[in-house]
């Protein structure tokens, strides 16, 4: 079974940017996505990308976040710009039934 490893989280001030990476241990043919879970809240979809590059975004991140994938590296990225305190959460990479371990993103001054 493929494994997913996220990286790139951290502490950033409001208005700042971060880029998350998700490296898969093998070739991914299906949809890859980013989800997040804030304390006391349910996990929610942030963005996903299909094999042909079709993307979907949560309304709350449209225009600020961009998802992309590099098939040669089996990696998916999430570029996050103009971050807000409400973006604070653990971000998880997903494909099918496989989840990464998550990476913490904290937006605070």
Following the backbone from N to C, one meets helices and strands in this order, namely EEEEEEEEEEE
| SS class | mainly beta
Q: Helical segment tally? A: 0
Largest sheet: 7 strands, mixed
Low-confidence stretches: none
The average pLDDT is 95
Shape: globular
- Topology, number of strands: 11
Question: End-to-end span in angstroms?
Answer: 40 Å
Q: How much helix is in the residues?
A: under 10%
Radius of gyration: 13 Å
Strand content: over 45%
Give a structural overview.
- With 109 residues, the protein is mainly beta.
- The chain has strands at residues 4-7, 10-12, 18-24, 32-37, 44-49, 55-57, 65-70, 75-80, 89-95, 98-99, 103-107.
- The strands form 2 sheets. Strands 2, 4, 5, 6, 9, 10 and 11 form a 7-stranded mixed beta sheet that branches.
- β9 (89-95) and β10 form a beta hairpin.
- The N and C termini lie far apart (40 Å).
Key terms:
109 residues, mainly beta, seven-stranded mixed beta sheet, four-stranded antiparallel beta sheet, 50% strand, globular
Describe the structure in brief:
The protein has strands at 4-7, 10-12, 18-24, 32-37, 44-49, 55-57, 65-70, 75-80, 89-95, 98-99, 103-107.
Give the topology:
Layout: E1 4-7, E2 10-12, E3 18-24, E4 32-37, E5 44-49, E6 55-57, E7 65-70, E8 75-80, E9 89-95, E10 98-99, E11 103-107
Parallel strand pairs: 2-11
Antiparallel strand pairs: 1-3, 3-8, 4-5, 4-9, 5-6, 7-8, 9-10, 9-11
């Amino acid at each position: 079974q493929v494994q997913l490893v996220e990286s790139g989280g951290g502490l950033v001030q409001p208005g700042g940017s971060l880029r998350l990476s998700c490296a898969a241990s093998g070739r991914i043919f299906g949809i890859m996505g980013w989800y997040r879970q804030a304390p006391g809240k349910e996990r929610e979809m942030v963005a996903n990308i299909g094999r042909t590059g079709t993307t979907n975004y949560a309304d709350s991140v449209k225009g600020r976040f961009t998802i992309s994938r590099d098939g040669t590296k089996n990696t998916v990225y999430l570029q996050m710009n103009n971050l807000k305190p409400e973006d604070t959460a653990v971000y998880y990479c997903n494909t099918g039934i496989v989840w990464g371990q998550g990476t913490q993103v904290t937006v605070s001054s």
